[in-house]
Write a structure and sequence with these properties.
The structure is a single chain. This protein is mainly alpha-helical. It folds into 2 domains: 65 residues, Winged helix-like DNA-binding domain superfamily/Winged helix DNA-binding domain (Arc Repressor Mutant, subunit A); 73 residues, Diphtheria Toxin Repressor, domain 2 (Orthogonal Bundle), CATH 1.10.60. The protein has 8 helices and 2 strands. The protein has a two-stranded antiparallel ribbon. α1 packs across α3 and α6 packs across α7.
């Protein structure tokens, strides 16, 4: 079941990619979005038109793509969900970066905001405990030790 009926996974992926490029100071262009999202430029243009129709971006051919205030707010929320999930997966579940990235990308679209918020609080709590206690950190690592041997 989807977390939000208003926007689909594809819209959210595009908004997040635009936000990331902007955040990193890179040019937000059809070409760069096609590379990041691993799609054809024609697919990017089609999706950008839809996002523009929904007033989430400002898109004019040949110009840099920009998020509207509404689009920026939504993109920031998507980016934050992704970051929280990735941190949980890498630092608490100790998954490799590439698995955590892929899983966070999938999960961010479907988990309820309350679930994300609880995972965030749990992550902060566990990381605080890890920094306070080496035994806690070791215990946590031991939980997953059999999985580390399989790599």
């Amino acid at each position: 079941m989807r977390r939000s009926a208003s926007y689909g996974k594809s819209y959210e992926d595009y908004l997040e990619a635009i936000y990331k490029l902007s955040f990193e100071g890179k040019k937000v262009s059809v070409t760069n979005l096609a590379k990041i999202l691993n799609v054809k430029p024609s697919s990017v243009v089609e999706q950008l038109r839809k996002l523009s129709d929904k007033k989430l971006i400002i898109y004019k051919k040949g110009e840099e793509i920009r998020l509207t205030r509404k689009g920026s707010r939504l993109a920031r929320q998507i980016f934050e969900r992704h970051s929280i999930l990735k941190k949980f997966l890498t630092e608490i579940l100790m998954l490799p970066e590439e698995i955590a990235e892929k899983d966070a990308c999938s999960m961010e679209h479907y988990l309820h905001k309350d679930t994300i918020e609880r995972l965030k609080k749990l992550t902060v709590f566990v990381l605080d405990k890890k920094s306070e206690s080496t035994s806690f950190s070791e215990d946590l690592r031991n939980i997953f030790s059999d999985l580390f041997l399989k790599r």
